[in-house]
Amino acid sequence: MPYPAFELAVLVAAVGLFPLRRRYPTAVLLVLAVLTGLSSAAGPVTAATAYAVARRTVGARWRARLLAVASALVVGAATAAAPWLGPGPVPYGVALGLVLAPTAVVVPGLAGTAQGQQGRLLRALRERGDAAERARRFADSEARIHERSRIAAEMHDLVGHRLSLISLHAGGLELALDQAAPELRDEAVLVRRTTRDAMRELRQALGVLGPLGRDTGPDALTDASGTRADVESLVATSRDGGIDVRLQWTGPDLDTRPARVRRAVHRVVREALTNVHRYATEAHVTVTVVHDEEQVRVVIRNGAPPRPSEAAGERGTGRGLTGLRERVELLGGTFAAAALPSGGFQVEATVPAEPGDAPAPERPGGGADLSGPAAYVDASSAVGDQATGTGPVGPMVPARRTTEALTLAVGLVALSVLMVLGVAFVYATRPHQQGPPPLPHIGMTYQEVAGAGVLDNAAVRAAATGHEPPRPAGTVGCVYPFNGATERHPGGLTIARYCFDAAQRLIAIDRFTVPSVRDAVPWETP
Q1: What separation in angstroms does the CA of 133 have from each of 94, 355, 367, 368?
Q2: Within 13 Å of residue 488, how many CA atoms lie on the same side as its CB?
Q3: Over the stretch 335-374, which tens digit does the pLDDT of each residue have?
Q4: Angstrom distance (rounded) from CA 526 to CA 520
Q5: Which CA distances in Å does 243 have to 225, 238, 248, 299, 342?
Q6: Mean pLDDT for the stretch of residues 421-430
Q7: Residues with Cβ < 8 Å from 294, sequence gap 6 or more?
């Protein structure tokens, strides 16, 4: 290149601008285009920038205009700088710009456009797949809710009606036996009370089978459910029932949170206190509610009772805790209930303060819970963002990213080679300013005359001996070149003589004619 220091300075400036391509993509690309026109050394940096900017630019029209303006700047800068910094005249500057514009801007920009569109297409398809999966999940959940509601309605119509008749007839039998057979009245009372308990348990079961978004039965929840006042009311009711309960509330009230969060808190506290009433009547109980900006944590812990309760030996069905787990995990929270080493029991539930559409987590110990209405595995989380290399995708994404990096590196090297070949071709065809050597003239030195091709020839000197005119005064030596001898007429030769003084300066150029010698036949054949 004609100016190595300038080329190096431009390359350093281009490398310094390259890290700013994400913050100022348009300005950096246009400045690098101008630098590429001034010096082709910045071409590879401009190619990498054009690829990155085109890949991130979404608007098709804006991207096309940006690449067109950058290409025009490359050609314009190369044309303007060619007479001083480039190969030469303006046409050669235009040729250099037309070589640099495709290799440094157009081709990398098209490659970046294709790569960016592919990544955006994959992300759009993945989002559509996630939306379809969420819609399927909601549809399945709604179908389960409707099926459970239908089962609840059938149980209410069939079993509830029969139990109501049994309770009615048991009441009538109690009144009749009060007069006729008082000793059998207690049996009738037992039947009526058992029927009443069965009705109450049936209503609770219907509340579980019914839609999880609302609560049914005699303990229907209201808009105040789950607030601090509601939890304090539950604690006060348990305390009135003989339970030593203490409430610890940290954070603001839950009145601004969604109803499903408050209902979940109410259900957890009520179910845990109900179990305490049933299995640990004399135990000390602590209800802790911690509410912050992200989640609501509820912990109900009871110590070991002084003596076992009458119902402690009974084995519960576990449906109450199972229902709580389903309710909490449906909101994207976590639930845990386990006995303590001290002999007590602890129920802990953590619910997001603003639950979204988070899928239910997997059960600890393997596999997702496929029995509840919230059973769902988000397949998109297992696929990840393969286009951008994010997400838990295993060993495929590093391999994909490595392949993509190698492809881009090979492409950049190929473009650089094409760029070098094109620039070399333009510089090789540029016009050379060197013309024919100047003709010898008086005043030139012996070296300059010899550089012009005027050298002494022994044959010419011999031909001029005895036939040349007198030499000029001050002559030290003369040169008789062969290129000065021309045939002027038959029988004569024109010879040039260049005479130099003591300072080896040309002082005279003489031309004279000498007779030529006609060769005779050297012998005759006998």
Answers
A1: 57, 18, 19, 17
A2: 13
A3: 999 988 888 899 999 999 888 654 444 444 433 333 333 3
A4: 17
A5: 21, 6, 16, 17, 19
A6: 87
A7: 352, 353
